[in-house]
Design goal:
Among the domains are: about 5-70, no CATH class; about 75-175, no CATH class. About 45% of the residues lie in helices and about 10% in strands. The strands form three sheets. Strands 3-4-7 form a three-stranded antiparallel β-sheet, with no helix packed on it. Strands 1-2 form a two-stranded antiparallel ribbon. It has a two-stranded antiparallel sheet with strand order 5-6. The chain is flat. The protein has helices spanning about 10-20, 25-35, 40-50, 55-70, 70-90, 95-115, 120-130, 135-145, 155-180, 200-210; strands spanning about 220-225, 230, 255-260, 265-270, 280, 285, 295-300. Helix 5 runs antiparallel to helix 6. It is built from ten helices and seven strands. It is mainly α. InterPro entries: DUF1759. Pfam families: DUF1759.
């Protein structure tokens, strides 16, 4: 415990069990009391005015209660806290329903502990609590059946707090739904891209051109000759294969005819993009790669 009067009720509710434990010697209770108080605080100064003996323990506790535990002063403290919220709301500053519910619930429970539960006090508290809300909330509260079904001020105050609790729970559910299952605002779920494959010959030529300082985008691609050897293209083909065709196209494009000693294989694909083909510069490389074959039809010559 320190100097704040709002901390007295939580402090004394815990230390009360030590104070009423008759198995603990008064000297030990005094030491526990000193340890439970903040150093260099007003409460610590009050306790340290008494010598730490068993006879002075009860005197130290009574002095603390007279200084910090008076019921009328504590009621005044919590009423002033309610007035602070009213002034804050009247200055056109919006408070979140969650924050407002936590504060009001804490202050009302503290006042109830201090004995402020009579009908006359409930009328005053209801007027103060109602002034803590903005115009939109009050309109929603007056439209609800709970606002007119109460018989007295105490029940009306309880219904108002229950209505505020429902509003807080609804806001939390809306916030959870709008959060996008863990995605923050502005964050976009990235889908994995389809992996693109390229042949080892093109990669080798790209690396060679980078070492020589040339741009791979203007490099001349290579082709397969009649004998199965790789020779560079002397010029760009008249009709290079493009990938802008729709994937639903039923046209077949003959990608490569590769001659071997025993077998000629024709690799066909409806779209070079579907075949994960390798694009080198502006002209597509048509090398055989077992990873890029979309449809393979083998036949002998």
């Amino acid at each position: 415990f320190g100097d704040d009067l709002k901390d007295w009720l939580p402090f004394w509710s815990q230390f009360y069990h030590i104070d009423k434990d008759y198995d603990i010697a008064p000297e030990n209770k005094f030491q526990y009391l000193v340890q439970a108080i903040v150093v260099c605080s007003r409460a610590r100064e009050v306790v340290e005015t008494f010598p730490p003996t068993g006879e002075n323990y009860a005197k130290a506790v009574d002095s603390l209660k007279a200084r910090f535990g008076r019921g009328d002063r504590l009621v005044e403290v919590y009423v002033r806290e309610l007035l602070k919220i009213i002034i804050f709301v009247q200055s056109n500053q919006r408070l979140s329903p969650t924050f407002l519910y936590d504060k009001l619930e804490s202050y009302l429970r503290a006042l109830e502990t201090l004995g402020v539960t009579t009908d006359k006090c409930a009328s005053i508290l209801y007027s103060m609590v109602e002034s803590c809300f903005d115009e939109e909330f009050l309109k929603a509260w007056n439209r609800s059946p709970a606002s007119s079904s109460a018989n007295d001020a105490k029940e009306r105050l309880e219904n108002l707090m229950l209505f505020l609790k429902d509003e807080v729970e609804a806001e939390e559910r809306i916030s959870l739904a709008m959060s996008g299952f863990g995605l923050t605002k502005g964050e976009v779920l990235k889908m994995p891209r389809k992996k693109k494959y390229s042949c080892c010959i093109c990669e080798h030529q790209r690396q060679r051109l980078r070492v020589e300082g040339n741009s791979p985008s203007v490099a001349v691609p290579h082709r397969v000759s009649e004998g199965g050897r790789l020779v560079p293209h002397s010029r760009r083909p008249q009709n290079p294969i493009r990938t802008h065709h729709s994937t639903k196209s039923l046209l077949d494009y003959t990608i490569l005819s590769f001659r071997t000693k025993e077998l000629t294989m024709f690799i066909r694909a409806r779209n070079l993009e579907e075949a994960n083909g390798c694009q080198f510069g502006k002209i597509h490389c048509l090398h055989i790669n077992k990873l890029v074959i979309y449809e393979l039809i083998s036949r002998t010559e």
